[in-house]
Write a structure and sequence with these properties.
Blueprint (H helix, E strand, L loop, with lengths): L2 H14 L6 H4 L6 H6 L1 E5 L14 H4 L6 H9 L22 H11 L3 E7 L25 H11 L3 E2 L1 E3 L47 H18 L3 E4 L9 H18 L4 E4 L10 E5 L11 E6 L16 H13 L2 E7 L9 H17 L13 E2 L22 E6 L2 E6 L7 E4 L13 E6 L7 E4 L4 E4 L9 E7 L1
Parallel strand pairs: 1-2, 1-9, 2-3, 2-4, 4-5, 5-6, 6-7, 7-8, 8-9
Antiparallel strand pairs: 10-11, 11-12, 12-17, 13-16, 14-17, 15-16
Length: 485
């Protein structure tokens, strides 16, 4: 690739397009309708790190950190780092049992509407055919354009292809290997798997360290190449792009992407964390966490089926499907979407535990999807005693909901009230819909239960809407469809 020519093409596209590389211009973007209506997507962490499958997807960094569990494990299983380094896992990543059509069929059954493979993780290995690097799945390992195969299979099932790039952290990710006799040795040049492996400073200091112009230009080209080759509908960035040095390049990327989408006639979005983008210029993502209250802007939670890892490891600490369904309902009621991650094995098979969770979510959505898809928020997200802990990384313990925890969504004249834990006695009290509620003064025409034939009895009392059922028994959330006049 002629990198100078590609950079000039990026600048030319921005100069001619509607969106310029400044925050005022980028803030004119509108969140796509399809994205706000989709509500549920699947994240996929799969790559060379799936070969050792130990601890988590940060194995390539931590195996070079002296005395870490990964470092010790590597010595015990693979030997000395100077003789067997991370690069030596690449030939072992064969994806021999990967069939994109099977993945697409499973994801369709799960009820997801958009699918987001990690195109390049912190380790610097690309899952797609690239002109900027030979360290990719098309030229090494499986020798297949894995992302391209996914795009074809997903779109045949009506699923939107979205992608993520975690390339920014590659600046420092392998730096530990320079501190002892390993296979990471200078001189490192652009194109090496381990380049640049710079010292890991305070990663929370947004003003330093500052990657070089060479690295930042390489990062920009990689991201734009993904856009041009695969036309993803959402482009997700992991953290560390919020640092000062990335800002000019982020603005260029966003302007290029938004202008390219205008050329395609497509609606696209960018995901970001930690105020990497100026508010209103992209969609904020809450990693492994929730908002406690309804937000007037669209947002997304990314989390995983496992608490301990984003990638496959034997013995993953899995969440229950009920917990995930409850979280989906809670997030959607607050004007958000859930991006749920799975971790395939190195050979391309999806673990049975991951499959079971996805199918359980899909079964629930087949019955209750009208309370999720194409809905929007009501006057309040819900009611009940549960206090959601707000913030990132708050999903290490399951949230404990009760039969008083109810979440609302709406569509036209229909209000959906989802009871997160259905009571054994079938008695439901919805305080927000009582006659004296400050939230509601309308007329209730009819109430039905999604997925059940029973017609509930109900009465709008002063302090609550009282609903009584006699045959409804369900371990998963139950949805009341309320027709308003």
């Amino acid at each position: 690739m002629d990198k100078r020519k590609y950079l000039m093409m990026i600048d030319d596209t921005i100069a001619k397009g509607q969106f310029k590389d400044d925050w005022d211009s980028l803030s004119q973007i509108q969140v796509p309708d399809w994205y706000q209506n989709a509500k549920f997507g699947i994240f996929i962490h799969w790559g060379v790190y799936s070969v050792p499958a130990f601890k988590n997807e940060w194995y390539p960094r931590n195996m070079y950190i002296h005395d870490s569990d990964e470092y010790k494990h590597h010595l015990e299983v693979y030997g000395d780092h100077k003789d067997f380094g991370y690069k030596d896992f690449i030939p072992m990543f064969q994806a021999e049992n990967f069939h994109a059509e099977e993945w697409a069929d499973l994801f369709k059954q799960s009820g997801a509407k958009y699918i987001m493979p990690v195109a390049e993780h912190h380790d610097g290995f690309q899952l797609y055919k690239s002109d900027i690097s030979t360290l990719n799945a098309y030229e090494m390992g499986p020798k297949r354009d894995l992302l391209g195969e996914m795009k074809t299979a997903f779109e045949e099932q009506g699923l939107e292809l979205t992608v993520s790039s975690h390339r920014a952290e590659h600046w420092f990710f392998m730096s530990g290997g320079k501190e002892f006799d390993s296979d990471i040795k200078e001189p490192l040049v652009r194109g090496d798997l381990y380049w640049p492996s710079m010292p890991e400073a305070d990663l929370h200091d947004i003003h330093s360290p500052k990657p070089t112009e060479e690295f930042l230009e390489d990062w920009l080209i990689r991201c734009c190449e993904l856009i041009d080759q695969y036309k993803p509908k959402v482009f997700y960035f992991d953290w560390w792009i919020q640092t000062e040095a990335f800002k000019p390049y982020l603005k260029k990327f966003a302007a290029y992407y938004y202008n390219r989408a205008e050329e395609w006639g497509a609606q696209v979005a960018i995901n970001y964390k930690f105020d990497a983008f100026v508010f209103g210029s992209a969609v904020p993502d809450m990693e492994r966490g929730h908002f406690a209250e309804l937000k007037p802007y669209f947002w997304q939670t990314c989390t995983s089926v496992a608490r301990n890892s984003w990638c496959y490891t034997p013995g993953n600490d899995y969440k229950s499907s009920i917990e995930i369904i409850q979280n989906l309902v809670d997030i959607v009621s607050k004007n958000g979407a859930l991006l749920l991650n799975i971790g395939p094995k190195a050979d391309g098979t999806i673990p049975e535990e991951d499959k079971a969770i996805l199918l359980a979510v899909g079964d629930w959505l087949k019955v209750n999807g009208e309370a999720i898809y194409d809905t929007t928020y009501w006057k309040t997200f819900g009611e009940g005693p549960n206090n959601i802990e707000e913030g990132q990384f708050t999903d290490q313990a399951a949230k404990v909901f009760t039969s008083e925890d109810i979440r609302f969504t709406r569509k036209g004249s229909h209000l959906y009230a989802t009871v997160l834990v259905y009571p054994e006695n079938g008695e439901v009290r919805i305080k927000s819909l009582g006659k004296k509620s400050s939230l509601f003064h309308g007329i209730i025409e009819e109430i039905s239960i999604l997925g059940f034939d029973e017609k509930p009895t109900w009465n709008q009392a002063e302090d609550a809407l009282l609903i009584q059922t006699s045959t409804v028994k369900c371990p998963t959330p139950v949805v009341f469809k309320i027709v308003l006049n």
